[in-house]
């Protein structure tokens, strides 16, 4: 299934924020992590979020994914306003509509790769579509490893299991927090290739926080954060152009 993108057609928004502010702590210890961010994340696109350390990347991702409460503003996934949901509704929405990939893989050590991949569906009381499951497994190259436990897999293979787990329920959007942060360059490339293919071939929507310009080079669009604001964006990025832009942001931030 390749998603036809009609040239010139308006982008469909998968998730968006309106005036999203997040303040941690109080008084002298107060930190404004996000200072009123309004941003739209397009469907069927691979978006990277970059910026100097402490610029608010993880906070933006956590708030957009409904993992963290906002101080002010609104967050939408599709047409649903997350910030208006009760905790139970939010948990159900995260389970049914959002996929997550973390730097630390977060696999269950006692379960096989296959069981890990199917766990979110089992929890939701759903069965995988066999053809889709097979397609994901073959794309991610894990067919021979399905019976293995995480400790019997390399870091790159474990992260590919985590990617398959995020993808198998066909979520509306996947949030990936530095998914290649613990991987060597070859494994990173395999994981990024897979994420790229899942956007291009399956029409998946992925938002990825990364420090790595090479990883950003796999995406369609980079959002640059500084001091809790989106300060710039780049379409069809290359690693070199991202590196250059980051150098300016880092020197402005005094890093
Ligand atoms: N739980 C918390 N309590 C207090 N301050 C926090 C908390 N989480 C984050 N912050 C602060 O909010 C700001 C933004 O943090 P965030 O983790 O979003 O940045 P980041 O861009 O993801 O950083 P990094 O690249 O280092 O992971 C930072 O100043 C951080 O110290």
Quick rundown:
Helices cover 35% and strands 25% of the residues. With 255 residues, the protein is an alpha/beta fold.
The CATH superfamily is: P-loop containing nucleotide triphosphate hydrolases
Mean pLDDT: 92
Going across the biggest sheet, name each strand in turn.
6-7-8-3-9-10
**Highest CATH level, the class:** Alpha Beta
List segments where confidence is low: pLDDT < 50 over at least 5 consecutive residues: none
Oligomer: single chain
Q: Level of helix content?
A: 25-40%
Provide an overview of this structure.
Its EC number is 3.6.3.-. By secondary structure, the protein is of the alpha/beta class. It has one domain (44-63, 84-252): 3-Layer(aba) Sandwich (Rossmann fold). It is 35% helix and 25% strand. The chain contains eight helices and ten strands. The protein has helices at residues 57-64, 87-97, 113-123, 130-140, 155-167, 185-200, 213-216, 239-252; strands at 13-24, 31-42, 46-50, 72-77, 80-81, 98-102, 173-177, 206-209, 221-226, 229-235. The strands form two sheets. It has a six-stranded mixed beta sheet with strand order 6-7-8-3-9-10, with helices on both faces. It has a four-stranded antiparallel beta sheet with strand order 2-1-4-5, with helices on one face. α3 runs parallel beside α5 (155-167) and α5 runs parallel beside α6. The relative contact order is 0.18. Bound molecules: adenosine-5'-triphosphate. Residues 24-25, 31, 33, 51, 53-59 line the site of adenosine-5'-triphosphate (ATP).
């Amino acid at each position: 299934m390749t998603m036809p993108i009609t040239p010139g057609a308006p982008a469909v928004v998968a998730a968006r924020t309106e005036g999203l502010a997040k303040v941690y702590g109080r008084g002298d210890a107060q930190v404004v992590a996000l200072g009123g961010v309004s941003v739209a994340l397009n469907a069927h696109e691979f978006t990277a979020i970059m910026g100097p350390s402490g610029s608010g990347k993880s906070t933006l991702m956590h708030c957009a994914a409904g993992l963290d409460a906002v101080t002010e503003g609104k967050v939408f996934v599709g047409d649903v306003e997350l910030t208006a949901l009760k905790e139970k509704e939010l948990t159900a929405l995260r389970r049914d509509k959002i996929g997550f990939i973390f730097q630390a893989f977060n696999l269950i050590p006692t379960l096989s790769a296959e069981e890990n991949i199917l766990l979110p569906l089992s929890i939701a009381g759903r069965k995988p579509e066999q053809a889709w499951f097979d397609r994901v497994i073959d794309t991610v190259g894990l067919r021979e490893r399905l019976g293995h436990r995480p400790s019997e897999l390399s870091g790159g293979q474990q992260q590919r299991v985590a990617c398959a787990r995020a993808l198998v329920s066909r979520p509306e959007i996947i949030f990936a927090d530095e998914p290649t942060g613990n991987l060597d360059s070859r494994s990173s490339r395999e994981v990024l290739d897979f994420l790229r293919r899942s956007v291009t071939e399956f029409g998946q929507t992925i938002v990825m926080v990364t420090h790595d310009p090479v990883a950003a080079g796999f995406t369609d669009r980079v959002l640059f954060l500084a001091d809790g604001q989106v300060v710039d964006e780049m379409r069809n990025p290359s690693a070199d152009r991202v590196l250059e832009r980051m150098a300016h942001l880092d020197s402005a931030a005094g890093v």
